[in-house]
Design a protein that fits this description.
Elements lengths: L3 E8 L8 E7 L4 E5 L14 E9 L3 E16 L3 E7 L2 E4 L11 E8 L2 H5 L4 E8 L2 E9 L5 E5 L2 E12 L7 E16 L1 H20 L5 E15 L2 E10 L22 H4 L3 H14 L1 H12 L5 H19 L7 H14 L2 H10 L9 H11 L1 H4 L7 H17 L11 H22 L4 H10 L1 H13 L1
Antiparallel strand pairs: 1-2, 1-4, 2-3, 3-6, 4-5, 5-6, 5-7, 7-15, 8-13, 8-14, 9-10, 11-12, 12-13, 14-15
Helix pairs in contact: 2-4, 5-6, 6-9, 6-11, 6-12, 7-8, 9-11
Amino acid sequence: MDDATFEGIWWIPGDVTRGVAGNLIKSVTDFKLSLTGSFTDMQHVMTAESYPLVLGVAKGAKQITLLDCVQTGANLGMPGFVSKVFMPRAALVGGHLEHEEALRFPKATFQYSYLPDWVGASGFDRKLEMDGDQLKRVQITYEYPEEITTAIPGGEFAISYGFETGGDLLSDATLRQNVHVRIELEESLDLVNWFSKYVEPLQNLLTLATGRPNAITGVRVYSPELIVSTSKGDWMSPLEVLFTQDFGDDRKAGRLYPHDMLFTLGDLGEHAGRVINDWLQVAEELDSVCNLFFGVQYGGPTYLRNRFLPLVQAVESYHRRRKQNYVLRPEAHEKRVEEIVANASAEHREWLGQNIGDHTNEPSLRTRLKELVSEAEEIVVPLIAGSKKKFIDDVVNTRHYLTHFDEELREKAAQGEELFHLSRTLSFIVQACLLGELGLEGETRTALFKRNQPYLYAVRQAKSNA
């Protein structure tokens, strides 16, 4: 989403006569409504205000609805000059929704940084006509690629295409295809649920697939309250959603090709619909794993320990959610605890009873790593120069040192380049686990990694450092 400034008049729903001039300013990290005036009278002007809805009309008769505006600043000058600053949670550009019940939408479209690369479909065709060795004519045509649709619980998912033209047709002409995800639901959702159930999980899927942090570059929602009637029927007018996110659209990598990505839409073939459905379920069931893993992907440059620890936690969380999370069967562990407490001295029984709980029957980090490494051995072993024991020892010692700062482990804890390699390997382990969740296992998963250039580069580095 590009930076934007909207100059206009703003008011509270139902009180249009008290319109106040001001600017809505949107950048990557800043979002504010600066008013030259106030929505309240002078005797309440210094009272902090908040409004669930604020309406506005900007230059060009553009209608805007602001959601959850909270006052963040105010200034009172003499004689009677007031300015106020509000921070909205989001802005809906393209219409007015005057009551909170209207803020539910049955349809939305989303765009992401590398969605076109991941989809890999183009409607363009170019033909060159030569006259001898001279170029005589260039003909470029466009035909919309076929939509990819699949049913999801309570609705339909689709990958759709749009087409834009530009230029003065004298010195230049531009043709542009855009790609977006479209979801239509039987029951309407508010913005919070649209983002938590669909926008952010699909952002994470594309980040996993492309190996690059994907920004959300566009969101549009459709309201039954904003109907446009035409000769071809009625349709819902789109509302562009503006909001802040932790980082902008930064395509430093340029165009991505299949070998740059972990997997493409084409790699999924006829299973694309199933994978989309599986991912939406995985995102809900493994929310802690996703929060930890993708938090690292979107975090940008940081201290190595701030990448390592969340990745270790992601591995632990994945194993806890998906694998056997006990050493002895619960009834056997309970019996063991009872025997230990019964055989302890009277002065220690109370303490033991309070401190020997279910957590003491959970697998250790070492055990969890052994199991996950073994399940993805064909992917992990090339990254660790064949030494599974050393890798696991290094991860465990480093994690324990960085968590507990036990001086006895200082010399055993990885630092610098070694810590970087441990973190990268843990990241590939999580990626392998998530691919397995999508049904991409065995030879299929191995083939995807062996085509992936970032993975192959990591393998080459591991060999050179062995």
